[in-house]
Amino acid sequence: MRLQHCAVYFHSLAGSRLLSLLMTSRHKAADSVSTSVAPAKRKKIQRNHVHINYEKPANVQEAEHCCNDASESERWRPANWEKIIDNIREMRKNKDAPVDNMGCDECPDKGVEPEVYRYHVLISLMLSSQTKDAVTYSTMQKLKEHGLTVDSILQTDDGTLGELIREVGFWKTKVKYIKMTTQILKDKYCSDVPKSVEELCSLPGVGPKMAHLCMRSAWGVITGIGVDTHVHRISNRLQWVGKAGAPTKTPEKTRVALEDWLPRPLWDEVNHLLVGFGQTICRPVNPLCGTCLNNELCPEGKKVLSRDKKTEKKGKGKK
């Protein structure tokens, strides 16, 4: 019996020692593996930089404001331009030019519905292209007697409309443009006139000059300077179209040049002012430079006066 117990004891003791040896060998193997393999590098995490807008100190804001004012004050403007405009106002004070009594502002009926009034403004501007104010005015009277609304024009055949407007320049083309534009107003704008330069310019026969003048007269909004042949001619004669002094080739380029330096509060006045001045004094042919108050300030006026003096001297020499 004691021998049997001793056999069991030695058997269990051998088993525990064998287990201990196995565990020890496994730990050593793990250690050898861990020392032979290099540790994995830690992955760097990129962090997005967050931009924080700090409120600028008052002195910095004031400095920036001064810089803006400085850039405005340093903007190129023609010499003596304010004096020239004052002189033109003085020469225009009697309001005796055709534009004062028969211009597009005088053509619409004042007592009609607002949308009809705006339609009158647009049609008068479309008729005025390449046409004298007196002819535009008389043609508008005929149209108003016939019935000048979107519906009445759409109901008028092309032949009848042509007879009504045949005195204006390019009347056949204008018949087509007026009918097409009127149909668009009916279909797209509820028989009213668009309220943006872009939409107005999309209408057949309407360009930037008409669009800016229409915005002013129809909607009371100043969006730009209306440049016609008079404004284009006078601006180039005065060399108001850029620092380099090179003449502009088109009225649209003249508009861009004027708007670059002319103070915005004057945009409303300058078209009417220069158109009347061009009709009475600064005419396209034989301008009245001798009576113009700007003849010593205007480059073109100086040339004309110098030429006249030379002609006068030659005439006296022959006598």
Q: Spans of 5+ residues with little confidence (pLDDT < 50)?
A: 1-15, 27-40, 49-70
Please estimate the helix content: 55-70%
Tell me the CATH topology of the domain at 108-219: Endonuclease III, domain 1
In CATH, the architecture of the domain at 108-219 is Orthogonal Bundle
How far apart the termini lie comes to 173 Å
Which short descriptors sum up this protein?
319 residues, disordered N terminus, mainly alpha, single chain, Endonuclease III, domain 1, Endonuclease Iii, domain 2
Outline:
The protein is mostly helical and 319 residues long.
Describe the protein's architecture and organization.
Its EC number is 3.2.2.-, 4.2.99.18. InterPro entries: DNA_glycosylase, Endonuclease-III-like_CS2, Endonuclease3_FeS-loop_motif, Endouclease-III_FeS-bd_BS, HhH-GPD_domain, HhH_base_excis_C, HhH_motif, NTH1. Helix content is 62%, strand content 0%. The protein is mainly α. Among the domains are: 81-94 and 227-310, Endonuclease Iii, domain 2, CATH 1.10.1670; 108-219, Endonuclease III, domain 1. The radius of gyration is 43 Å and the shape is globular. Mean pLDDT is 84; it is low at 1-15, 27-40 and 49-70.
List the helices and strands and how they pair.
Blueprint: H1 2-36, H2 58-73, H3 81-91, H4 98-102, H5 114-128, H6 133-146, H7 150-154, H8 158-165, H9 171-188, H10 197-201, H11 208-219, H12 229-237, H13 251-261, H14 267-280, H15 299-318
Helix pairs in contact: 5-6, 5-11, 8-9, 12-13, 12-14
